[in-house]
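Sample pair:
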Amino acid sequence: MAASSTLPQRNFFRKSPVGKSGVLTLSGFGIKVRIQRGHLEIEDGVGMERRKIRLPRVGHGLKRLVVIGSDGLVSLAALEWLAAQDASFLMIERNGKVQCVTGPTAPSDARLRRAQSLALGNGVGTEICRRLIDAKLEGQERLVRERLHDSVAGQEIAGYRDKLKTAETAEAIRWLEAYAASSYFRSLRDLPVLWPNADSSQIPHHWQTVGSRHSPLSGGPRLAVTPFHAVLNYCFALVEAESRLALVSVGLDPALGLGLHTDTPNRDSLALDVLEPVRPDVERWLVSWIMGGPFRKADFFETSTGNCRLKFPLCEKLAETAPTWRKLVAPWAEYVAHTLWAGTSRARGRRLPSTPLTQQHRKDAKGQLEPRNVPVPPRPQRVCRGCGAVLCSKQVEYCALCGVDLSRANLIELARKGRAAFANSKESRARLSASQKKQNAARRGWLPSTLPAWLTQSTYREMILPRLAQITVPTLARTMNVTEPYAAEVRKGRHVPHPRHWKELAELVGISK
């Protein structure tokens, strides 16, 4: 008997939604993760927009199952299925708090755990803390010098890094790290955050810069009030989860710290210690993001208390960076295990603990002495500076609806299509000649005495130029009475306009003294 066509059919994904990163992110209400006929059956979503996923035991490509939220169920059989497939389960809140991390267990050596518990008293823990913070300060110094061009902050961080050599206690190391962090985040605080022109009227004033690392809601990094730090907290939660899994893989206890973080309930101190050297890598990636393109208002929302939170699409994209942080954390977890093992009296003549994360023992045995490749996080989506739409091409800054982006690649494309032929005509040359005569006359008639004393070239570069990114190219062209190609070059900082335009540009971006 044929089945009735009115029977409801379950719509499962025929193709695995797990991407190349091996990360699958779930969100919504009534999340279900269970086993049905040997397959991992997953259901998530909100309301009518729900999806059902069924993963077989072979060819699924799943390495991390990330759940954002706390409404739903996960069966014991599903956890067993994940462990058998060497996949981990992460439960993370949007505010950057790690709720739960489970992963495949590894054999544990009691001698290594005993060395970990004694590290605080025999000086080995202090040596490890010094090495971890030294690597962190080195990354912070490189970031402020190379990306922010702040030599003063870089010199201050370098000074605190030199003092680490004489720090004899974990408390002294913590104080030096705190002083360096103050200079570091002070350099980041006023860095502008770009937004699409369509979102500029909806953006709160404190969202336009990176802002302070300390939130007024919590007095610390928790409960961020700016988008930059909200993204940073979520990425640090991913790194913390990867640190826990890495430490368990090498046979260490993630909760037993070495002195950088005090032991408190419901916190894995050693996992937080190990992620310290990786923090500058996360911050460098995020700084490159905001300096290269805008955020989108649709990816953030503000709670009634002022806490900035991430929406699910952005959380899903950020979760794809977990494999990168996993590779960066791995050598540090193995470094801690090897240093603890070398500090024991029974370690003489015995082989160092295994390297399941980096496979370094195997590489050494094969004679592979080439330097390790530093993993690079995936690039964030490029969005239109006008409306915030996702761009498919890396060569443009505006979508087709917001106007033609006047970059070199677009000019070449226009020439290829034959539209640049007009530039060689007599009419075009006549217009260019008239425009140049008009600009030269304006320069000759301008008096330097009309320029305010406070409006110098350094003022233009430090105060006016960063805010021009929020002004559209046509508006700049009308304000300066120049062509849009030239206005686009001024907006990008490739050309410094004549001083007679500085006062008009200062008024345009809201600067006056």
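The chain has four domains: 23-92, 110-365, 407-445, 447-513.
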